[in-house]
Design a protein that fits this description.
Layout (H helix, E strand, L loop, with lengths): L1 H34 L5 H5 L3 H20 L6 H39 L4 H32 L2 H12 L1 H11 L1 H16 L7 E4 L2 E8 L3 E6 L4 E5 L2 H4 L3 E2 L7 E9 L5 H13 L4 E13 L4 E9 L2 H22 L35 H4 L8
Antiparallel strand pairs: 1-2, 1-5, 2-3, 3-4, 6-8, 7-8
Helix pairs in contact: 1-3, 3-4, 4-5, 5-8, 10-11
Length: about 375
């Protein structure tokens, strides 16, 4: 009877005590979260309740399983399994706590500086994300090493592994040259402020927003919701456009090809009216000028401004569409058209004859009307 009750009391008591401590801790964290709405720390710590309960249960069982006298012939194996579970759950708990602390620190910083310096907030966000990944990787490696050291064979091999660490490091460095290069490039991006999460970039002609940065790759979300994944070493070895570098304000251009008779002053007034009704325009500046001319049309360019890349796109398409619609309704003659009339020869003035059968323009003086080319006298 004692052989049955003892394991039930030890194992059952450990599980019940774990559940009670986990419930009490979660209750305290929930109340703290309700009282302190300004910080998300307590709410984030509640996400660690599962690894916390695993640590408690594994620690209680590891310390009392000898008293349970359960499976005495498997006592060593059972103790090693509980030790491995304890190490793994402790590493999991450490990662969750570190993530909660880092996220809370970033949230406080972002709430204070988001309005004044959004670029710096994105930079800190990138650094925090990479630091959290590095911490998770270090904790994971240490946990795996601690698990391996619980086996006697691994302890004996430790000395030989340390002795050959230099050679193995050289071999691993040559074999994983690309991976190590990407890892160092990721750290360079994080702390060199080259590109940040949320930046608007143009890479190989693709326009998008940086969505994720890791130690080895970077993901860009394009305007049509595609994801472009590339190694972070690309951004340290090739040129790219970062529209969010420094101030996010941008100046955009809109081009039209119109007839030479287009009313430029009326177009400027209409551009001003369109921008005043466009919420995406930041009100900084605008103008409209003729930038080129061809035998059949002239090129008109409008300059507009906006606070960021998304708004400048909205302003450009709005101005382009409404200006074309206004020209179609109010000034259709200003739209480009193909001239099918017969060409009118130019009068021969200043010593040249007007061809026979053509009328001399009225504005030409009489002396010039009577003038003839010397070869035709």
């Amino acid at each position: 009877m004692d052989d049955v009750l003892r394991p039930l009391i030890v194992v059952g008591g450990s599980v019940v005590l774990t559940l009670l401590l986990g419930w009490a801790t979660d209750l305290l964290l929930r109340k703290a979260d309700e009282r302190h709405h300004e910080t998300p720390l307590w709410g984030l710590l509640r996400r660690a309740r599962i690894p916390y309960q695993l640590v408690l249960c594994a620690a209680l069982l590891r310390g009392s399983y000898d008293e349970a006298r359960l499976l005495p012939d498997r006592e060593v194996a059972l103790g090693r399994i509980l030790t491995l579970v304890l190490i793994g759950s402790a590493a999991w708990l450490a990662i969750r706590i570190a993530a909660a602390v880092v996220e809370t620190t970033y949230t406080r910083y972002a709430s204070t500086h988001r309005e004044r310096n959004p670029a710096r907030v994105r930079r800190v966000r990138t650094q925090v994300t990479l630091i959290r990944r590095v911490v998770s990787a270090i904790v994971g490696v240490v946990a795996v090493a601690a698990m391996l050291l619980t086996f006697p064979a691994m302890r004996a091999a430790g000395a030989s592994l340390l002795a050959s660490a230099g050679i193995l490091g050289i071999v691993a460095g040559v074999a994983a040259q690309s991976t190590l290069g990407n890892m160092f490039a990721g750290l360079q991006i994080a702390f060199g402020d080259m590109v940040r999460i949320g930046d608007t970039v143009v890479v190989d002609g693709e326009w998008g927003t940086v969505e994720e940065i890791t130690l080895t790759f970077l993901t860009v979300r394009t305007w049509d919701e595609r994801r472009i994944t590339m190694p972070v070493s690309y951004f340290t070895s090739k040129p790219f456009e970062n529209w969010s570098r420094g101030t996010p304000q941008m100046t955009g251009t809109v081009f039209w090809h119109v007839d030479h008779s287009a009313p430029l002053e009326a177009m400027r007034d209409r551009l001003r009216d369109i921008l005043r009704e466009c919420p995406a325009w930041d009100g900084r500046a605008f103008n409209l000028t003729v930038t080129d001319s061809t035998p059949s049309t002239m090129e008109v360019r409008a300059l507009v401004t906006a606070k960021d890349a998304d708004d400048i796109w909205t302003v450009r398409v709005t101005v382009r569409e409404q200006m074309i619609r206004w020209l179609t309704d109010e000034h259709p003659y200003a739209l480009p058209r193909v001239n099918t009339a017969d060409a009118v020869p130019a009068p021969r003035l200043d010593g040249y004859l007007v061809p026979d059968g053509h009328r001399v323009p009225d504005g030409v003086p009489a002396a010039r009307r009577a003038h003839r080319h010397p070869r035709e006298r």
